[in-house]
Amino acid sequence: MNIGIVVFPGSNCDADTYHAIRDVLGHHAQYVWHEERSLDGLDAVILPGGFSYGDYLRAGAIAATSPAVRALGPYVAGGGLVLGICNGFQTLLETGLLPGAMQPNLGGQFRCEFVHLRTERVDTPFTCGLAPGDVLRIPIAHAEGRYVVDPAARPALAAHRQIVFRYCDARGDVTPAANPNGAEDGIAGIASPSGAVLGLMPHPERASEDLVGGTDGLRIFSSLALWITTGRRLSAQPVEVH
Amino acid sequence: MTGGVRTVRIIVTLKPGVLDAPGQAILKGLGALGHSGVQAVRAGRYFEIEVEATDGLDERVREMCEGFLANTLIEQYRYEIA
Q1: Interface predicted TM-score (ipTM)
Q2: pLDDT by residue (tens digit) across A142-160?
Q3: How does the average pLDDT of chain A come out, rounded?
Q4: What's the gap between Cα A56 and its chain centre?
């Protein structure tokens, strides 16, 4: 298994992601500089968290113009898998590979804390090791995490089961109090209809060892490893790019 | 008109009805500084772009705005070419 982690100027969670995959899980990972045009040979590509290009223009907007990100469309069409974490999720939204946009957190605060996520969909490469309703305790660290989507696109989001994680309390109940940023419908992570592309605001790489507070995040990476090493395939779905 | 370099001034703002948390924070700041009578603040972005004047400049500017400078899901834009 070979995981590529794209590095942009301003990425700062690439090393933690690399550590979780290589040192904690024992799988092969490599850094992919954002100017790289080829994603050949990578079983999955991760866009890590951070402040690519200083969040200039909009968070993820300039990263979306880089060669490595522009190669993601064909990469996914060819069977590739993509995980966007925090700034990586914002970048995927800017490309249109995932629908919607991020706005500043309700209340104007940078929220940096552990949250709970309820697992809403388990037939994706990133959640195949979880059970429906599983609650993960993972930290967030963001100022723009308020997910919004065009009202006209909401029915499709539900019909294609694209909501993968919602903010919840420790018991798994999705409540306004459990929502740290005002994201629509408590949405913390969404996927493409096929499940090949997942974006989430929380940082699973920061919850991959008990030493730093918990290992629920590791379950996302180990799901991905399980999916790839057992040779699973997604059913063919058209890739919608906006 | 072609030839030369034109200055394009672009303003990007949130669409009406979209919640503007930074604008609200700025509104509070103005109040805290003692500015009375301020009823609302919408915060946006301003760009000045120097671009070669060619045919279809208007269309090119629109493409820059639609595809990059503004996120048209939640933002609108207006521009003037000097």
Answers
A1: 0.81
A2: 999 999 999 999 999 999 9
A3: 96
A4: 21
No. of helices (H) and no. of strands (E), chain B: 2, 3
Contact with chain B for residue A107, Cβ under 8 A: yes
Give the distance between the most distant pair of CA atoms in chain B: 50
**What would the pLDDT profile of A162-192 be if each residue is shown by its tens digit?**
999 999 999 999 999 999 999 999 999 999 9
Helix residue ranges, H only, chain A: 14-18, 67-70, 72-77, 87-95, 154-159, 218-229
CB contact under 8 A, A101 and B24: no
Tokens of A128: 């195949």
Is B21 at the interface with chain A, CB within 8 A?
A: yes
Q: Indicate the pLDDT class of residue A237, thresholds 50, 70 and 90.
A: low
d(CA B55, CA A135): 57
Catalytic positions of A are 86, 203, 205
Amino acid at A9: P
Q: CA nearest A168: which of A122, A210, A114? A: A114
A65 touches chain B (CB under 8 A): yes
Longest dimension (CA), chain A: 44
